[in-house]
């Protein structure tokens, strides 16, 4: 029989805790193996690769028929029928990790039939852990989460993030310049998975970012959804590369509509 979301979450929690230990141990030992990926600002460290290898290895032991989509090594093997696809960001917030800023995370989600059904995000620096199963609510360290009930865009504290590509950043800066005068303020913490968890617990009213990959938002997106937020893309599209917006129901449309206007100016 197909595993339940709760069973998948249990597997994910155990693996992510071990992975988080590796990430913080490697941070304490000193950063090594720093290289760049898509651009000069897109860094990867030996820890990103080691954590991904560890998680993929652990998943293969307990769920040998599943596939893994990871940030550093891409997709593994071909999914068998009914297989689970695990979506992994070994270290989300790599730049924070590099600089010793305590805002980075291991993020792991389980997707069945194209739908994320379980997710865990853990901050190794603080030990905070967010979990969710589809239909089962979102939790931080065992405590049930509810997002903000903010209804006014002008009163909203909005998180966002920037990609690594210069042309995309120029566009993101233009969108930000249009939005900033119309909100309470903007935050850029540097790890998308944690931003989505911050929205889930009302530490941000809303969050948006263009250009996110599945591993950035799969687990955190479920945590936010299960905490009562609407998580979507633009114009009815699912959340994805084009945009991820997470906001309380009353705030989603005003934020979304403003982003559509600002995004229409064009850009990658
Ligand atoms: C990045 C972070 C950042 C976001 C970027 C992501 P990484 O992930 O989540 O906050 O703005 O778009 O690429 O590279 O540190 O795993």
From TrEMBL:
Its cofactor is Mg(2+). Gene3D superfamilies: 3.40.190.80, Fructose-1,6-Bisphosphatase, subunit A, domain 1. It is an enzyme of class 3 (hydrolase). It catalyses: a myo-inositol phosphate + H2O = myo-inositol + phosphate. Its EC number is 3.1.3.25. Keywords: Hydrolase, Magnesium, Metal-binding. SUPFAM superfamilies: Carbohydrate phosphatase. It holds the Pfam family Inositol_P. It comes from the Bacteria. InterPro entries: IMPase (IPR033942), Inositol_monoP_metal-BS (IPR020583), Inositol_monophosphatase-like (IPR000760). Belongs to the inositol monophosphatase superfamily. This is Inositol-1-monophosphatase. The lineage of its organism: Bacteria, Bacillati, Actinomycetota, Actinomycetes, Micromonosporales. The gene is suhB.
